[in-house]
Description:
Blueprint: H1 7-10, H2 30-33, H3 57-77, H4 81-85, H5 90-121, H6 126-143, H7 147-155, H8 158-164, H9 168-171, H10 174-180, H11 190-199, H12 204-217, E1 220-222, E2 225-227, H13 229-234, H14 241-257, H15 259-280, H16 287-293, H17 297-310, H18 312-325, E3 331-332, H19 350-364, H20 366-377, E4 381-382, E5 394-396, E6 405-407, H21 414-433, H22 445-448, H23 450-466, H24 470-505, H25 512-527, E7 531-532, H26 546-549, H27 555-572, H28 578-587, H29 594-598, H30 608-628
Parallel strand pairs: 3-7, 4-6
Antiparallel strand pairs: 1-2, 5-6
Helix pairs in contact: 3-5, 3-6, 5-6, 12-15, 17-30, 18-30, 19-20, 19-21, 19-23, 20-21, 21-23, 23-27, 24-25, 24-27, 24-30, 27-30
Amino acid sequence: MTSRSSSALRKSTAQRKSTAKKASTKVSTKSAAKSATKPGKLPEWNLADLYSGIDAPEVTRDLQTMDADCVAFETDYKGKLAEHTAKEDGGKWLAEAVRRYEAIDDLAGRLGSYAGLIHAGDSVDPAITKFYGDVSERMTNASVHLLFFALELNRVDDSVIERALQTPELDHYRPWIEDLRKDKPYQLEDRVEQLFHEKSQSGYAAWNRLFDQTISGLRFKVSGKELAIEPTLNLLQDRAPEKRKAAGQALAKTFKDNERTFALITNTLAKDKEISDRWRGFQDVADSRHLNNRVEREVVDALVGSVRAAYPKLSHRYYALKAGWFKKKKLAHWDRNAPLPFAATGTIAWPEARNMVLTAYRGFSVEMADIAERFFTDRWIDAPVRPGKAPGAFSHPTTPSAHPYVLMNYQGKPRDVMTLAHELGHGVHQVLAAKNGALMAPTPLTLAETASVFGEMLTFKRLLGETKNSKQRQALLAGKVEDMINTVVRQIAFYSFERAIHTERKNGELTAERIGQIWLSVQGESLGPAIDIRPGYENFWMYIPHFIHSPFYVYAYAFGDCLVNSLYAVYENASDGFAERYLAMLAAGGTKHYSELLKPFGLDAKDPKFWDGGLSVISGMIDELEAMG
């Protein structure tokens, strides 16, 4: 069901961000050109805030406590919710039950987060892999004893629940309870729910692990060197055309060699989802995601329709412009994110990247910058590239009794600065929302990207204002447009790809060749005629982790970017008090529907003009670039 009904116990892995999303942001400033050739010493996170090691006695203790608490919770409450909630003091009784449930969720969140984070830091170490698997299995087994709670709670009559919610102690949990009850039409009989839950460990969770381990273990031969996926992808932004081409061809070759494995993973997970959706009664392949996001299907359809209609005036137009800068009619697909000929060169050292982002944050809100600074001072960031480390970047909220952690693969590239700004935006959001507790801190994906994209925009605007050289301003503006295209156009193309895969999978397995054909179709539509898609690109769908970990997640990026474009326009024209309203929106976590959170800013995502307004910001930047020549 949704992540609300025991989020920590059900989600024990750190959420991974697609490396494709952050494929091309450039911070082209004078200071960047003067930077060192290496990013310098990079911080590694201190996971001791959770546990001191995989063999720590506290891990054993907490696993035993979790097991015991889950069994005791089932003994005390199973089969009693309807009767006791209907009593005169039913509100207080149920509030105590929810508090105990939340405490278990928080403890499980600590265990699951630690296992997920240490595994993300090194997914090839056998001891860590075993620990991760064992903890995940223990959590699944323990949470079987909690499954009844959400199911029984949703079977209590609406009138009885509403009367119980008049009790202040229970009313505190009203957002969580009301949200939970939206899942009611899709609940199954208790024993079926238990079967789905227990088999997840040998089902989709196992296939997720196989994907992670396979991706981390892949090696790509570039110029005689064996590289992992992250540094290979990074070469697609190298200044040397021959390196970009070599990286593109190396990616294609290794993906081709592993296409059967990735096709099997994709087919199996799509079938697994189809079975679950069919049993629960979801009509559309993405409806379960929309429910989880608490967003209406028609709102997402309007977003997708607006973006696809805008492809010609966004990505098609920009890539034609970029090809001209390289004095070509078309760019090979491996040159799509090539640094611009007139962009500044050099590597941005870590202290400089830190200063860029914190200065931008502080210019908006001292409170926001102070929270972000803790990620540096308290070692909540893991930045170096290491063998076996998860690719891409993410900010994992862990649990409210602890704090978030950010994972990056920092290589001193200008895009890495924007990735830092992005992930710290998530981190600030997660810190502010934590006060709502384990059940109500999580933010639906419709707003999950708001703080991150807003953080990027703050950093970009700050850098743009400080850059006086006209060519560097052009490069900075172009970099932002490329990032927006990767965030909006690319992610909606990814969503279209997923829809096609899951829809066609209902009629039987898809070969790797067929998946590649679908991939090329949506990529051709979104990238346009100025991108020359060469042989080998048909398998580039294989490394996108969202397709595996969070089906249909990707539209949240486009949702967030368009929303932030509109939100930033309000900020630029706002009187005093915007920052306070903005931080209050983040602090609400999952306690309010996105439409309610946007009201103070005069924004309505149901209005078709809302999406066109956000897209016009990107189009306007391309207009400016065209005028520059």
